[in-house]
Amino acid sequence: MVEKLRPVWLLARRELRDQFRDWRILFPLIVLTVLFPVLMDSVAGSAVEFVNDYGGNLVVDRLVPFSILIIGFFPITVSLVVALESFVGEKERGTIEPLLSTPFLDWQLYLGKLLVGVFFPLLASYIAIALYLFLVRYQDLNLPSIYQIVQLLTLTTAHAVLMVSGAIAVSTQSTSVRAANLLASFIVLPVAFLIQGESALLFWGNDQVLWMAVLAVSVLAALLVRVGLAHFQREYLLGREIDSLNLRWMWHTFWRSFFGDARSLWSWYRDEVGASLRALRVPLLLIVALMVAGGVLGFEWTAANVPAMLGETSAEDMGRIAEQLQMSAGVVSADLQFSFLTIFGHNMQAVMIMLFLGMFSFGVLGALVFVANMSVVGAALAFFQLFGFSPWTIFWAGLLPHGIFEFPAVMFASAAVLYLGAMLVTPDPTRTMGEVFIQALANWFKICVGLVLPMLAIAAAIETYITPNLLLKVMG
């Protein structure tokens, strides 16, 4: 194994030597790495003065960790250009042929470029964070603990691997540095939104919750590295000169994957939808396990924590809340009944959100949306139990009538999203990444049109005309 990794180190050493000799890369990186911590230190001083005048201890306590998170992210975006031009830059400079003619394997070439791409962002981020911690010692602020600093450095490292692996994947699929730089926005903007969510966890969450964010980012980074390794082919780099948007080819590929060789609706269900269902056996088992875990965790957390939150609530208020729960059953009946189209549209919106998030996360975020919905269902059942209603009765009367069709439909859609991500990270030298994505998307729509839409339509009809009456009877 050491001998197989030796070419990776040789390539990385050659790339590092070239990068350290290029002042056009080093000068702006050094200036911005040094300047940004000084700017954040000035912002921290102004924030302390503001808090001293108007209060807000939570902001002060979390200001330094938040600043570390932002300071670690900023140099990565600046030095991302090194990763973006890793392969396509060599192609424009005319040095790609000697590199690809070496006896290195494809994965060795890719990992060598990845190591160099990660080295510069992490080096700049660590230097900037260290400089900021040195400067903030002279402010009226509490430094975070060693445990929290290690946590933030781990999160910064995961961000660097995530962004660099995405940039190198873009570099292998681009035909010019200009195109690669334009596509970089699809890397920077999603990670920026991700950091906004992590900032919310940092201010209002706890360290254990933030570790979940570290795990999620690490999983996404590992999947991106896997995608790059799975679809990197040196022949593809040499054989492509320009990218063209061939809509006719894209539609033909999608249409052929969607219908296959079917000549009738029955043959389409039997051959195409049946084959897609058989391919979903493993993702379905995973989704079922996540569904049970999400529902149980939501129920147990609500049953354990909400009573303490309601500890000071008087008996009169508790009775009033119970009456409101009974009245809420009446809201879905008679005059204010939700229409069939409203319920069906809401369910389809949830399915499309799972697809949208899953496409950018290899199915991970799409599955998490499903787990979150199941956690809400479990929490709602526990909430009803706190006010004297049997959770099993609510489940049988308020969820199961339409859930017989709705739950399997959403499970099929979630499993198909996971399968889409699995296809993207599976090596297939006979197809390009774009072809794999189109065929995986056609497979998802095959499941959605063939199974999910009909089942959600039946569930919406039951939820509109049957479930409210059953719920009213059991809740009195």
How are the SSEs ordered, and which strands pair?
Layout: H1 2-20, H2 23-54, H3 57-78, H4 80-84, H5 88-93, H6 96-100, H7 106-136, H8 146-173, H9 177-183, H10 185-204, H11 207-231, H12 234-239, H13 247-259, H14 265-279, H15 281-309, H16 315-331, H17 340-359, H18 364-386, H19 391-424, H20 433-465, H21 467-475
Task: Please supply descriptive tags for the structure shown above.
21 helices, mainly alpha, 2 domains
What can you tell me about this protein's structure?
The chain has 476 residues and is mainly alpha-helical. It folds into 2 domains: 238 residues, no CATH class; 229 residues, no CATH class. The protein has 21 helices and no strands. Helix 19 packs antiparallel against helix 21. The protein is flat and about 75 Å long.
SSE order, as H and E? Answer: HHHHHHHHHHHHHHHHHHHHH
User: Strand tally, please?
Assistant: 0
How many domain modules?
2
Total of DSSP H or I helical runs spanning 4+ residues: 21
Could you write a compact summary of the structure shown?
The protein has helices spanning 2-20, 23-54, 57-78, 80-84, 88-93, 96-100, 106-136, 146-173, 177-183, 185-204, 207-231, 234-239, 247-259, 265-279, 281-309, 315-331, 340-359, 364-386, 391-424, 433-465, 467-475. The protein is an all-alpha fold. The model is unreliable at 329-336 (pLDDT under 50).
